[in-house]
Amino acid sequence: MSAALLILALAAPAPDWFRVYQYAQKTASLRGCSDCQGEPDDLCEVRAGAQIRALDEYASERPPVPGRVRLLRSKADPDCAPHAKALFAPRGTVELAAIRMARVPPSAALLERFAPAFAVPGWPRSPQRRKGEEPRASTPNRAALRVSLLCWGSERAWPAVELGPGSACEWWLLPVHGEGEPDLAGASFPLLAQRNRWPEPFRFGDARWSRAFDRALPLEEAVLLGEERPAPDPAAAPAPPASATPPPPPSPAALRCGGEAREHTALLDRFDQWERQITGRRQSLDRASFTLDAAAWSGHCPELDVLRSVLEEQLGCAVGQEGRCIGAAAPEASR
User: Fold this and answer.
1) Which residues, in sequence order, are CB contacts of 132 under 8 Å at separation 6+?
2) 204-244, pLDDT tens digit by residue?
3) What angle do CA 171, 226, 118 make, to 5 degrees?
4) What is the rounded distance in angstroms from the CA atom of residue 172 to the CA atom of residue 193?
5) In a structure prediction context, what are the per-residue pLDDT tens digits for the chain, which is 335 residues long?
6) Which of 103, 98, 63 minimizes the C-alpha distance to 81?
């Protein structure tokens, strides 16, 4: 399990984190209907329009059969899991992508910076399906567009595996209705367009856009505009109320992770959840003293090191360690 995936799993997602979008301009028929007369390759119909699902929810429903991809379906439709090779074929008509979409329209400053002047009708087709298609001159309607980080599905990357460096991504301005429903009749504008007018492709997790791949942070234009958030002014912080009796001195453990860390219950629960999946055990972390029992991770030392560093980063304080993990290089000394 890679460090990047553990980081994504441990952090609580922002409200605008990646979601799975499946969309088609016209109704299509695919083989792979799992509930049609008991035959796994009976035809299933994918209606024109869009289906949307939370990324984590979709990941938990992936079919166990290698080489197939579960499609998003309404409750009234039978499940459908076509072969990945057929779904992502160059002439296919059903698109599947993981998309992180801004919650508000782009600013005038962003449009001025990137000057989007070319668009494709509807939501974009995946890169392998663009042969013969070319963006045409168009004027963006700022109110109906959203900055979107779009990572394409493919036969050998996501969704066959977790969303990660194997996935190809692009920046787009996608047309929407209302609060963000896909407008498949609108015009999509590539951002960071190259000379051929298509957007510059890059890998999931690209360091240039690191904040856009942080599930704990909202997606903001500053990622594209190269603007950093201003550091908080310590002088502006309110002074703590005066106390008649000074508090007792903190214990060494509290100096590492004090009471504020204990309020991050969802984060600590996520740590326990991943520990159970990796080691089959639970709660090597003593939440009272914020000390890890490294011996409980015997044989899983790299995972312990990664999860511990991520936990400390999210909590903003250091976690102690008892004992040593056996089965890999000795961990660093306890703090």
Assistant:
1) none
2) 999 999 999 999 999 999 999 985 444 444 454 444 444 44
3) 35
4) 9
5) 455 555 545 556 788 999 999 999 999 999 887 767 556 678 889 999 999 999 999 998 876 678 899 999 988 888 889 999 999 999 999 999 999 999 999 999 999 999 999 999 999 999 999 999 999 999 999 999 999 999 999 998 999 999 999 999 999 999 999 888 999 999 999 999 998 899 999 999 999 999 999 999 999 999 999 854 444 444 544 444 444 444 444 444 335 676 677 777 778 878 888 887 788 766 788 887 788 888 888 778 878 888 888 888 788 888 888 888 886 444 344 44
6) 63
Contacts of 131 (CB under 8 A, 6+ apart): 90
The DSSP string of 259-299 is HHHHT-HHHHHHHHHHHHHHHS----EETTTTEEEGGGGTT
Residue 291 amino acid letter: T
Residue 138 · residue 186 · CB < 8 Å: no
Tell me, what amino acid is at 201?
A: P
Question: What is the DSSP-derived secondary structure letter of residue 319?
Answer: -
Residues 297, 289: Cα–Cα separation, whole Å = 18
Task: Find out whether 258 and 317 touch, Cβ atoms under 8 Å.
Answer: yes
Cα separations in angstroms, 208 against 1, 107, 116, 205, 223:
23, 21, 20, 8, 8
CA distance 183 to 21: 12
Quick one: DSSP state of residue 101?
A: E
Mapped to the 3 state alphabet, what secondary structure does 141-199 carry?
CHHHEEEEEEEECECCCCECCCCCCCCEEEEEEEEEECCCEECCCCEEEECCECCCCCE
First-to-last C-alpha distance (Å) of the chain? 25
Look at residues 121, 136, 114 and name the one whose alpha carbon lies nearest to residue 200.
114
- The widest CA-to-CA distance across the chain, in whole angstroms, is 77
Number of C-beta neighbours around residue 141 at 10 A: 13
